[in-house]
């Protein structure tokens, strides 16, 4: 059996969170935990190296990987990290020329042939869900078999990029082992969810489902597809109890795209959590039109304390453009039900999508204040490979297709009628207009605690001044000297 080193490539908090980096927190590489679990179950020796959470720069990280003496290296990369992953792969190939370098994740799944063409240091790409693919790939490498027989890959053949047959999505997630949380050092101390999500410590991340059946134009489903699949409630309860027993976890962030897709499953999960009485708190993401007053009340009884909703806009026209399938009234009702149940409510909004105007931006901010959200989180419209928006967005404005800026914290798309600077100013102004109110500041202070609140506020002000300095000197954070 082989030594497989799985890598989360280097990135910085500034890249991930922009001017809100002071309030950010490292997220565990949950996809690598799943790959590690299935590969370890197959008998391979696994190590996970997460450069993003430790802040290590590229060259020292290369030395760390080389020191792990891998037989195979696997790098997971979203679009924003594909440049760094490519540079990392090139340096590793220079040091370890005989070691296969495998790339997986959202970017190569959306653009497999382009990825292999542009970054020649990648030997193999994993397309789609990699849990089973990594096991078959490792077996084929160990035995020297032809990789073309392994489903779910993009490989090199005679100077060409060849896609093997597509691997079906995993229908029964219960057949998979628990994520390999134990392979991440300091899992519950280094990877603490942000103060807007967690209630207490130790806290952990957990994913209970895959695939989203909705068809929002900005969302890429290149890895898990649009078919919703989930762990059974029995399996999920064992997973929760495993986290409690192994790490003493008291709080969980359920990091699903939408926990409430299957309402019956969520109701059963809540009832089981109430019966188990683990004294566990948790948060989740959910669509507004999947919620109801009885469900939010039951969620609170089961330990849920906050719900994140992708509201995207307070303008009905923009919601129609995004094909959300939800209405302003849905958001009003869902926010009211959450607050009546005692749940904190965080609304995330997209700034600068196709068709966005100054008027629609004003409506979004006014709406967020009117419904009295507890937290307001803006993101720039970021067309991602694999999303329906990606191939047609150029018709509606200017698109800076620099992959390294695809973090939703920089305006890479500028709709007709607006400028990049206007969007950047509006982003900052919307945060000020929402949070710089006595009642809201007092609420955030109570949630964070005085020490964390003052530290976060101070660092955010410094980041804001840094951005203002860039604007004054004409250095545009949304432009890059390197194209995608």
Task: Describe the 3D structure.
The chain has helices spanning 13-17, 30-41, 51-54, 58-67, 82-95, 106-110, 112-118, 131-143, 187-190, 233-247, 263-276, 293-301, 316-322, 328-341, 358-370, 420-435, 438-448, 450-472, and strands spanning 3-8, 45-50, 72-76, 101-104, 124-126, 153-157, 160-163, 203-206, 209-210, 229-230, 251-254, 281-285, 304-312, 344-351, 375-380, 397-399, 413-415. By secondary structure, the chain is α/β, with parallel strands linked by helices. The strands form 4 sheets. Strands 2-1-3-4-5-6-7 form a 7-stranded mixed β-sheet, with helices on both faces. The radius of gyration is 22 Å and the shape is globular.
Please count the beta strands (DSSP E, at least 2 residues each). Answer: 17
Can you give the helix content as a percent range? 40-55%
How do the strands line up in the largest sheet? 2-1-3-4-5-6-7
Dominant shape: globular
Residue share in β-strands: 15-25%
Largest sheet: 7 strands, mixed
At the fourth level of CATH, the homologous superfamily of the largest domain is Aldolase class I
Low-confidence segments:
471-484
CATH class of the largest domain: Alpha Beta
Measured distance between first and last alpha carbons: 37 Å
């Amino acid at each position: 059996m082989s030594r497989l080193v799985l890598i989360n490539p280097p990135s910085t908090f500034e890249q991930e969170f922009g001017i809100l980096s002071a309030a950010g927190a490292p997220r565990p590489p949950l996809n690598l935990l799943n790959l590690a679990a299935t590969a370890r179950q197959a008998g391979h020796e696994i190590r996970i190296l997460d450069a993003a959470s430790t802040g290590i720069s590229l060259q020292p990280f290369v030395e760390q990987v080389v020191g792990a003496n891998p037989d195979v290296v696997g790098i997971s990369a979203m679009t924003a990290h594909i440049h760094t992953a490519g540079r990392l792969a090139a340096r590793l190939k220079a040091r370890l020329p005989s070691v296969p370098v495998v790339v997986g994740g959202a970017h190569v799944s959306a653009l497999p042939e382009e990825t292999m063409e542009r970054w020649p240091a990648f030997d193999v790409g994993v397309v789609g869900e990699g849990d089973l693919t990594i096991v078959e790939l490792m077996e084929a490498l160990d035995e020297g078999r032809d990789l073309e027989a392994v489903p779910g890959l993009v490989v090199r053949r005679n100077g060409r990029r060849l896609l093997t047959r597509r691997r079906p999505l995993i229908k029964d997630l219960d057949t998979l082992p628990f994520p390999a949380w134990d392979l991440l050092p300091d899992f519950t101390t280094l990877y603490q969810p942000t103060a807007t999500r967690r209630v207490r410590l130790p806290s952990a991340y957990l994913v209970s489902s895959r695939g989203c059946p909705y068809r929002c134009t900005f969302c890429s489903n290149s890895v898990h597809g649009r078919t919703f699949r989930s762990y059974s409630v029995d399996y999920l309860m064992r997973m929760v109890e495993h986290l409690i027993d192994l790490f003493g976890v008291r709080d969980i962030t359920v990091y699903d795209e939408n926990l409430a897709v299957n309402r019956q499953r969520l109701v059963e999960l809540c009832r089981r959590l109430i019966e188990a009485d683990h004294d566990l708190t948790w948060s989740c993401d959910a669509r507004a039109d999947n919620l109801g007053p009885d469900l939010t009340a039951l969620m609170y009884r089961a330990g849920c304390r906050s719900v994140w909703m992708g509201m995207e806009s307070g303008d009905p026209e923009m919601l129609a453009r995004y094909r959300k399938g939800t209405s302003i009234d849905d958001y009003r009702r869902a926010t009211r039900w959450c607050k009546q149940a005692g749940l904190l409510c965080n609304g995330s909004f997209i700034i600068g999508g196709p068709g966005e105007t100054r008027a629609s931006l004003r409506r979004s901010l006014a709406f967020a204040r009117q419904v009295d959200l507890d937290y307001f989180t803006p993101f720039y419209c970021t067309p991602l490979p694999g999303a329906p928006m990606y191939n047609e967005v150029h018709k509606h404005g200017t698109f800076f297709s620099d992959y390294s800026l695809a973090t939703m914290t920089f305006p890479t798309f500028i709709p007709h009628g607006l400028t990049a600077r206007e969007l950047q100013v509006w982003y900052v102004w919307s945060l000020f207009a929402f949070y710089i109110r006595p009642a809201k500041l007092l609420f955030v202070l109570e949630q964070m605690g005085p020490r964390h609140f003052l530290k976060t506020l101070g660092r955010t002000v410094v980041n804001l001044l840094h951005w203002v300095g860039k604007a004054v000197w004409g250095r545009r954070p949304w432009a890059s000297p390197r194209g995608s």
